[in-house]
Amino acid sequence: MRFYSPGKLLITAEYAVLDGAQALCLPTKKGQCLNVEENNLGIINWISKDEHGEVWFQDQFKKDSTGIKSTFHHKNSADDAAISKRCIQILNAAEQLSGQDLFAKGFNIQTALEFKRKWGLGTSSTLINNISQWLKINPYILLNKTFGGSGYDIACAQAHSPITYERKNDTQVSLKAGFDPVFSDHIYFVYLNQKQNSREGIAHYRTNAVDDRQILIEKVSNITQQLIKCDQLAEFELLINIHENVISKALNLPKVKTKTFPDYNGSIKSLGAWGGDFIMVTGKKDPTPYFKEKGFEVVIPYREMIL
């Protein structure tokens, strides 16, 4: 059995999407696949491969009267130990939601990424969506029981084109956006050479005082709608500049352009958790030389990134 989910980029409403703001979300051309086969051994063999087909994580799980356990000893890698615990959490939640004993027969599980893990395009969300497809369970509930978050990344993992996403009274509303900018040749995505911890970013957002969250939601949702409709690069740039100002004030953090690229001749917008992963930039000419000179080697044109 093979399952596949595309990655994601959150273009608008970062953080505010948690409180019900409407977000513009773009599924990416690269994603993650999950291959599952029964092994009749009563164990789960788990192998995760990167974009080059190299194994970046491996474990074996068994279940006894005390629960699911790893048979590996990840003494030399704190990261592997943490990933192992997360896998056990996912397996426990998946069993609970599906009503199945995954160890009655046992499975060989293999995941394969198409993008670099550190890019923040959805290593976790694509996994959650793939497992949910396999076991026919609600991916949003599985997400809540494991990683948490707004759920926009799950909506993206199920999409084949740009969408809007919002949470209304604990209900997820995902709609096709019709976003296909005629000026897409002037939009690029730049990797900031570091992966940002989304949970830390959310915690920062929650602890910062915002005068009125409802006003924030309305402002951001309005920008989302205008972005989808705009057909001029100048208007697009104005809208993302306004969005940056709004979120900067809400987070009490400097904008990435002010902090890192003050001399860039174009607009820059943070995507997702501020401070890492990708930024979206506009430019009337290819901005690759500018960013490479500053040490940022990964510059991807819109049409190469977005599904």
Automatic annotation (TrEMBL):
Domain of life, per lineage: Bacteria
Under InterPro entries, the record lists:
GHMP_GYDIA-like (IPR047765), Ribosomal_Su5_D2-typ_SF (IPR020568), Ribsml_uS5_D2-typ_fold_subgr (IPR014721)
Record protein name field: GHMP kinase
Origin species:
Zunongwangia profunda (strain DSM 18752 / CCTCC AB 206139 / SM-A87)
